[in-house]
Amino acid sequence: MNAKISEIFYSLQLEGSFIGYPAIFIRFSGCNLNCDFCDTKYALDEGIKKNKEEIYERIKRFNTKRIIFTGGEPALYDDFMADFMKTYYDYEYFIETNGTIFIEQSIKKLKHIVVSPKFFAIDEDVLNLFNKHSNSVEFKFIIDNEDDIKQTERLTDKLKLKNITLQPLFDNDKPIEQYIKKTAKIIELFKKSNLTNKNARLIIQNQKIIYNQQRGV
Ligand code: SF4
User: Phi/psi of residue 173, each to 5°?
Assistant: First the structure.
């Protein structure tokens, strides 16, 4: 079995519940969406097919036992991930997915799941499956304005989402000062929303602030 891999690298998880932990990132190539704001456009088609042994040869030298499957869209490789986790069972596994494809084969083997739904491509049935099938799932919404907060409130209430992270959108072509101002506004919107009484919090896009569009970090 092969998977098309865009890149493999060793870095820190700078977002979400496991922020700050060292991890190996396995970035799959290809995605079923094509978001304007995608910061890994190169991973939408670029990549080299590799089998699990070739991937293991690359990762075994890294000094951590945490692996994050990301993309592109890793859920396109559900069978491959399940087989990989079964073979290399002494690692802890995480995933970051857009929440449009349910990962039936691999979900039980994952320690933590970050689902980042895109408002233009919400599949409530699939979000529901993620919410029900894992006790360690986090829904990360990328927030640009008040409407995005309202949509997050609506989905959280309707689907009874358990664990919410709001992440202010970083505009790649704008200076960091604008990101700080925008984040301050979003914090105020968050404070006024009904999300404050749910399991919701806000985390900024640390990865973008530190590395912007650099690859392999
Ligand atoms: S879902 Fe993620 S990887 Fe796919 S196009 Fe959108 S931002 Fe990029």
Answer: -95, 10
> Tell me: domain 2-211, CATH 3.30.230.10, correct?
no
Cα–Cα dist 54/90, whole Å: 17
**Is residue 97 within 6 Å of ligand 1 at its C-beta?**
no
The predicted-structure confidence for 50-61, as pLDDT tens digits, reads as follows: 999 999 999 999
* 42 contacts 32 by C-beta, under 8 angstroms: no
Residue 161 Cβ inside 6 Å of ligand 1? The answer reads: no
Tens digits of residue pLDDT in 80-91: 999 999 999 999
Model-level pTM? 0.94
Q: At 98, phi and psi to the nearest 5?
A: -85, 0
Q: Atom 5, ligand 1: which residue's CA is nearest?
A: 34
| Cβ 117 under 6 angstroms from ligand 1 | no
78 lines ligand 1 (CB under 6 A): no
In ligand 1, the atom with minimum distance to the C-alpha of 72 is 3
CA dist 152 and 158 (Å) reads 10
Expressed in angstroms, the distance from the first to the final Cα of the chain is 27
Residue 152, classified by CB atoms within 10 Å of its CB into exposed (0-12), middle (13-18) or buried (19+), is: buried
